[in-house]
């Protein structure tokens, strides 16, 4: 009798702290024809996912897992998603992907994810863990790793570590970060994110000795707050909204990202990308990636008020609730945009 078991599908885990550059790297790698047969699962922090909207090239094969972190509440969802993908592939409902990449949320402890993949009897038969690639941003890594054990674990668990943002990093940043990585994980292959290719993600890594003890607790006081809104911002109010968010919350704000509807050009979303105090020059996409023309934003940080985005956005979009103290503050604020219904 012949063994009819299908070949296991190589699976890569792409990890790295909030804003390290995972999606940027993934976007570039997915343009490579060598990865035309790859499916992608993206775990997004925040109830309203935006990361999958920022992945440009594999519309059919991207599955977004929003609303929590794969290493905590979503572990069951990861199992279901990986099983669903297999079922859809086996039934011919989706193209027969031959590899799978999982981009973890920036807060994920990779250990429970690796455990799920290696200990689940069916998944372990159908998928084969190829490699773990961690992206590290040397401009923030030393503080990030000191403050967030997840960030250090992501490096410690990796087969390969890719240094991103070398255009922004000083030689000292690179030296300090490289030293840290070497101490945490001397066996990892170190590379520059700009040189990473399909094999950096999928080339089989040598077997590793894993410390499979998950971190004891979740992510401390770090939380994701999300917003979805029909209301557009004028370009000027967008700038003020971001400036205020940055100046009032910068030390606690680890990440802000999403798509914003701009009143002057509502058919094209503006991409917002901020990591700590560094905000990328906003750029317009040609169209709304999923046809849903609402502003969607996620802010991740320590001790952020749950209604932070909603309150601030509403204020700049001119939808201040009549009973909020912000109304008086805005009315008194000579810089607040006028016209277009603000406070009217
Ligand atoms: N200057 C510069 N910016 C970069 C580089 N790589 C990423 N960025 C920027 O850093 C920001 C975060 O990049 P992402 O790729 O979204 O990071 P991420 O790790 O996917 O972020 P999360 O999903 O929120 O954890 C974006 O504004 C990117 O454009 C780089 O090599 N150089």
From TrEMBL:
Domain CobW C-terminal residues, every copy: 222-317
Stored InterPro entries: CobW-likC_sf (IPR036627), CobW-like_C (IPR011629), CobW/HypB/UreG_nucleotide-bd (IPR003495), P-loop_NTPase (IPR027417), Zinc-reg_GTPase_activator (IPR051316)
Example of a GO cellular component annotation carried by this entry: cytoplasm
Keywords: Chaperone, Hydrolase, Nucleotide-binding
Signal peptide: none
Reaction equations catalysed: GTP + H2O = GDP + phosphate + H(+)
Gene Ontology molecular function terms on file: hydrolase activity; nucleotide binding
Tree of life domain: Bacteria
Family, per entry: Belongs to the SIMIBI class G3E GTPase family. ZNG1 subfamily.
Function: Zinc chaperone that directly transfers zinc cofactor to target proteins, thereby activating them. Zinc is transferred from the CXCC motif in the GTPase domain to the zinc binding site in target proteins in a process requiring GTP hydrolysis.
The protein's name: G3E family GTPase
Species for this entry: Hansschlegelia beijingensis
